[in-house]
Design a protein that fits this description.
11% strand, 21 helices, 19 strands
């Protein structure tokens, strides 16, 4: 009994021990399995986080590497669209509105940029860091703004924008190319691309990555004060010269879709001003363009179609109206047509005070009037992505927030706008290289760029008359004569030969920037034994009997732009200049060289002159370029890109009109022969 009981007890003990071990083993295996599951889920979660946030060491589905702990939007190896989506998802409403705000440099400082998350700073015309500011001063300013922008929560760089109508013309010492009115006469797309390349280098040298150029307006009436910014009255000429975008941004790869900027020596371009600004009634600046949609497409839209194909980064909206509807509030054209049908994926920018003008129509004269809140609503909902405020940014930001929170501007519209803004910033390379490249400093006004500008002057000149009779040409002029006369203030004035949008908004007379005047070009071209006499305002009869072999009479308009240049009734030279032509050309064989932003009435005095040359607004290298051709080292190549009318009452008159009776037809341009060398 005792033995049996002992065995039984031992068996029971062993059974209890086996059950305990089994429980421990089961618990152990459950722990291991659970641990493994936690590890697996942790790895999956980490991978998911890295794919969303960015980092390197882990491959995404696209095969790109991302860095642990680095936000995806800061990873340059990621696609631009992925970076945009990632950054947009991190932004607050305030940050998004800040990105849609562009303010003038004069109201910009570190605190303003940081506290408001400002997306862009702009130089208004003539707004510079100082009188005759050096490249170093420009760089110090732009880099300072950028440092502030980068110190914000998300470190989004600001994008600095500036006008570049004919070179980096706000900057003292920059190369000033001929205005578009002259470049259109070259019919030379390759030349325009090279000018774009040179302009981009000079702009980038000052730390600026964004330019408001080219104008692709089709000027149909020279009474318009901005006609000189248009290449031509012919949309095909305008379309063909959008190659300047290729020079500014770089040539986009085949099949590219969206904004394109090749590298840090290129800039984001801005085609302007959308659309129909060159077709307003009577050529009135910011007026009303009355035309059907087919006509708008066939005449005024072609330059934009081509610009979008080239990957233009931005488009600026026109002050003007289309059939009575302000362009800044025209959702059909801005969103349905431009962004929808035409597939524009870049940034749509308002004009200077453009939003203010929608309802109140007063712009800079009385900004942000009682209708401003509604104007902001109309503009943003129409499709404008960034507003050139440019000064009173606080009310704009406040109004934007009010309109969004009240549901009057949908969040989807805000996200679309900011997506476009960020897309341009990423594509421009601002995240990887936000500051100025100081190695480019010597590009501003570089000798090679001035040589290019000189070539552009030569190719833009149009010979309209050469000889009072057949077989009696005056041109080319001889360099080896005893004595020549040069008359007219325009012959010795850099400011007058450059025109508007040079150093200041309206331009001005005087030695406003380095260059070569027409007089200086003549003096360098003739022989050392030739006496050159200059008289800016000769008295009647003063040229008679003085032994001059010939006279070069330089006449033209004063500088102007936009509404200040509107001239509805009197597109003629000042009376004093017409009298000067009459007096001098009665006594000496003469060539008249006209400096102007458009054709002017010439018929009253044309028969009195031996030769007539349209030089347009030739820029800083006018003297050398004009002398190259007048003295026969190069042949005239330019042909008229717009019709030269007989009288103002014929306007508007364009090639192809049923009523077409010009003084010189579109496409006209003479050769002189006897050229000594090319």
């Amino acid at each position: 009994m005792s033995v049996l009981s002992s065995t039984t007890m031992d068996q029971q003990a062993r059974l209890q021990l086996s059950r305990a071990e089994l429980r421990r083993l089961v618990s152990l295996w459950l722990g291991i399995v659970l641990g493994l599951l936690l590890v697996v889920f942790g790895i999956v979660g980490l991978i998911s986080h890295l794919i969303v946030s960015g980092g390197c060491g882990v491959s995404t589905a696209a095969g790109r590497k991302v860095s642990v702990g680095v936000p995806l939007y800061k990873d340059p190896s990621q696609p631009v669209n992925a970076r945009v989506v990632d950054l947009l998802g991190r932004m607050t409403l305030d940050e998004k509105i800040g990105q849609m705000t562009q303010i003038e440099r004069s109201v910009s400082d570190g605190a303003t940029l940081i506290n408001n998350g400002i997306g862009s700073v702009v130089s208004g015309a003539g707004s510079t860091p100082g009188d005759k500011a050096t490249v170093a001063q420009w760089v110090d300013m732009t880099d300072s703004f950028q440092k502030s922008a980068l110190s914000t929560r998300l470190g989004i760089p600001e994008i600095y924008g500036i006008d570049a109508m004919h070179g980096h013309h706000n900057v003292w010492g920059a190369t000033i190319f001929p205005h578009n009115v002259g470049l259109g006469c070259t019919r030379d797309p390759a030349l325009l691309e090279r000018i774009g390349t040179a302009t981009a280098l000079e702009v980038r040298a000052t730390g600026i990555p964004w330019v408001f150029q080219p104008s692709v307006a089709v000027c149909r009436d020279p009474r318009w004060g901005n006609c000189f910014q248009s290449f031509s009255e012919d949309p095909e000429v305008v379309r063909s010269l959008t190659t300047i975008i290729d020079g500014m941004q770089g040539v986009a790869p085949v099949g590219w879709d969206g904004p394109y900027v090749q590298n840090g020596q290129k800039v984001a371009a801005c085609a302007q001003m959308f659309v129909g600004d060159g077709g307003t009634v009577n050529g009135t600046d910011a007026g009303n363009t009355v035309i059907d949609l087919e006509g708008l497409n066939n005449i005024h839209m072609k330059g934009y179609v081509e610009a979008i194909k080239k990957g233009v980064s931005s488009i600026m909206v026109s002050f003007s109206s289309w059939n009575g509807v302000k362009m800044h509030a025209n959702k059909f054209l801005l969103t349905d047509v431009l962004k929808g049908q035409m597939g524009f994926k870049g940034l749509l920018l308002s004009a200077w005070f453009g939003v203010d003008r929608i309802e109140d129509g007063r712009g800079a004269l009385a900004p942000q009037g009682p209708g401003y809140l509604n104007s902001v609503q109309l503009a943003i909902n129409a499709g404008i992505d960034m507003v050139m405020v440019p000064y009173l940014y606080a009310p704009f930001i406040s109004d934007m927030k009010t309109l969004v929170t009240q549901g009057k501007i949908p969040m989807s519209r805000i996200d679309d706008a900011v997506t476009r803004i960020l897309r341009v910033k990423f594509q421009t390379g601002l995240y990887e290289a936000p500051f100025a490249d100081k190695s480019l400093e010597a590009s501003v006004g570089a000798a090679v760029h001035r040589v290019l500008a000189r070539e552009a002057v030569r190719k833009s000149l149009v010979l309209l008359k050469n000889g009072k009779a057949v077989g009696q040409p005056l041109l080319p002029l001889s360099k080896n004569v005893p004595k020549v006369l040069v008359v007219g203030a325009h012959a010795n004035d850099i400011g007058l030969q450059c025109g508007g949008w040079t150093i200041t908004w309206q331009g001005m007379a005087g030695s406003i920037t380095p260059g070569t005047t027409i007089l200086q070009g003549i003096q360098k071209a003739v022989s050392s034994s030739t006496q050159v006499v200059f008289d800016p305002a000769p008295k009647p009869g003063s040229a008679k009997g003085m032994g001059y072999s010939y006279a070069i009479v330089v006449v033209g308009e004063p500088p102007y732009t936009e509404f200040m240049g509107d001239n509805l009734n009197n597109l003629a030279l000042p009376a004093a200049q017409q009298q000067m032509i009459t007096d001098v050309c009665a006594d000496v064989a003469c060539v008249v060289v006209m400096i102007s932003g458009r054709p002017l009435v010439a018929q009253p005095w044309l028969s009195l002159v031996d030769a007539f040359v349209a030089a347009w607004l030739p820029g800083s290298e006018a003297g050398s370029g004009i002398a190259d051709v007048l003295f026969g080292d190069f042949e005239f190549q330019g042909t008229l890109a717009r019709t030269w009318f007989k009288s103002v009452d014929q306007l508007p008159m364009n090639f192809g009109d049923q009523r077409y009776d010009p003084l010189f037809s579109f496409g006209f341009g003479l050769k002189m022969g006897g050229v000594r060398g090319q």
